[in-house]
Design brief:
Elements (H helix, E strand, L loop, with lengths): L5 H6 L1 H4 L30 H15 L6 E5 L6 H14 L3 E6 L7 H15 L6 H16 L30 H19 L3 E6 L6 H17 L3 E7 L3 H8 L3 H4 E5 L5 H14 L6 H11 L3 H14 L7 H24 L4 H13 L11 E2 H8 L7 H9 L3 E2 L5 E4 L4 H7 L2
Parallel strand pairs: 1-4, 1-5, 2-3, 3-4
Antiparallel strand pairs: 6-8, 7-8
Helix pairs in contact: 3-4, 5-6, 5-7, 6-7, 7-8, 8-9, 12-13, 12-14, 13-14, 15-16, 15-18
The structure holds adenosine-5'-triphosphate (ATP) and magnesium ion.
Adenosine-5'-triphosphate binds next to helix 4 and helix 13.
């Protein structure tokens, strides 16, 4: 354990620099965590969302009218991490919870079965009537077994690990919309018995197919009318609200959308300083200025620059020069892991589209991630807009770009345009 406290370091940096008292910054104790869904050492700037969710949980458990929640935002902004924190909050209130990561072209029945099974396992130890629990598990099994239809080959048949016989005539019609309503209603009734609720978390929700989205919306709608304590909490890219309303026009009234954005200066500083202080390391103000300039407050970048800076800083407090020396390494890692890996998912035609997009984005405004008119991209490439639709649609499906407003596209990855502009 180190003896000096961070306050001491900040106020006596001169003496801290004397060789005998220098506190080196130990790479082994580097606290930062750049990575998809990696829990940050400090979840900064999300108190508003966490507090609001506490109210939702409380209201739903009391059968008060409440909308399901959907978090939207760009890549790396912290949706998954926040979703996991909301899930922990629900578990803390003895709710049953389950989580799904949606994938394109994947039917909903199997993942929903597994997630609800998990939720029931969390919930039912508090339930007094094992027969009622088994009844609902039987309905869940019936719902799950419908994932195997007549065309499913024997070796592909799914055996849900539920140890009760499947129920008959409930949640097994084969119509996903009807079946979801019945399954959710029965599951929620168990939660009512124990005075809590069930929360189903869906990450990458924009990847659900139209039939799945439509069924899910209908089920949420029905459940909220019944005042049943089951909510869906979704997370996805900025166009998720458009995906939902294309499936069901009433979805705007069904979900409360929360835009998850980059961190403001105070939160970004906290994300860096709080974990460092726990290791007795401090930052000079100039270092924090430069780190914010580099990261733009995007959580993934905050972690990436924080990590590289820590590894290069010889001693505390960390200086602006330390950040400057470390930045190329952070940029190199982002170029490979964050940007490059995504760029490589695109075909040559899609890459050409994105390059034309990058050349235009940030050209007319200060916002380097600004949306671009599709007509301008077509103009730049000397093509008719309709002929570029396949590339555009494929890029949307791959989650690399989104269309927030008709006739425009923007990158889902922050600073992606700038990255492409620096690539030969
Ligand atoms: N509030 C926060 N404070 C500090 N760091 C954060 C915060 N939220 C997320 N991070 C960090 O940002 C990175 C990205 O988080 P996460 O994977 O949750 O983003 P995401 O929005 O789900 O991205 P994607 O759209 O690519 O799935 C992780 O390294 C995580 O530790
Ligand atoms: Mg995510």
């Amino acid at each position: 354990m180190r003896s000096a406290r961070p306050e001491n370091i900040r106020h006596s940096s001169d003496s801290a620099r004397r060789p005998d008292t220098v506190l080196s910054v130990d790479p082994v104790r580097n606290p930062y965590a750049p990575g998809a869904g990696q829990r940050p050492p400090e979840l900064a700037g999300r108190d508003r969302e966490l507090d609001a969710f506490d109210v939702v949980l409380e209201r739903v458990a009391r059968s008060r009218p409440e909308r399901s929640l959907v978090l939207t935002g760009l890549r790396g902004v912290g949706k998954t991490v926040l979703l996991n924190s909301l899930r922990s909050a629900a578990i803390g209130r003895l709710w049953g919870t389950g989580k799904i990561e949606a994938r394109p072209d994947q039917p909903l029945r199997r993942p929903v079965s597994a997630a609800l099974h998990m939720a029931l396992r969390e919930l039912t130890p508090h339930h007094r009537n094992p027969d009622r629990v088994d009844e609902v598990l039987g309905v869940l099994k019936a719902f799950a077994l419908r994932a195997n239809d007549a065309n499913t080959k024997l070796r592909d048949r799914w055996a849900p690990g539920i140890d009760v016989p499947a129920a008959r005539g409930r949640a097994d019609s084969g119509d996903i919309e009807i079946d979801l309503v019945e399954l959710f209603t029965d599951a929620a009734s168990l939660a009512t018995d124990v005075g809590t609720g069930i929360a189903l978390f869906i990450d990458e929700m924009q990847d659900l197919g139209p039939v799945e989205v439509s069924a899910l919306c209908a089920a949420c709608h029905e459940l909220s009318q019944l005042g049943a304590p089951l909510i869906v909490v979704g997370a996805g890219l900025p166009h998720l609200p458009a995906v939902l309303s294309a499936a069901k026009s009433y979805s705007e009234r069904l979900f409360r959308y929360q835009r998850i954005d980059r961190l403001d200066r105070g939160a970004a500083d906290l994300a860096l300083c709080a974990p460092a202080a726990r290791e007795d390391v401090a930052y000079e103000p100039g270092a924090l200025d430069l780190l914010y300039e580099k990261s733009g407050g995007y959580p993934y970048f905050v972690q990436a620059y924080g990590k590289a800076t820590w590894d290069h800083a010889p001693q505390t407090p960390v200086t602006e020069d330390d950040v400057r020396v470390a930045a190329p390494e952070a940029e190199g890692e982002l170029a490979v892991g964050f940007f490059g890996s995504r760029f490589e998912r695109a075909t040559p035609a899609e890459r050409e589209y994105m390059r034309a997009m990058a050349a235009r984005s940030g050209e007319t405004t200060d916002d380097m991630d600004a949306a671009v008119l599709t007509s301008e991209i077509a103009g730049a490439l000397g093509r008719r807009p309709a002929s570029l639709s396949p590339a555009r649609d494929a890029l949307i499906k791959k989650g690399l770009i989104y269309s927030g407003e008709r006739g425009t596209v923007a990158f889902t990855v922050p600073h992606f345009g700038r990255y492409l502009r620096t690539q030969p």
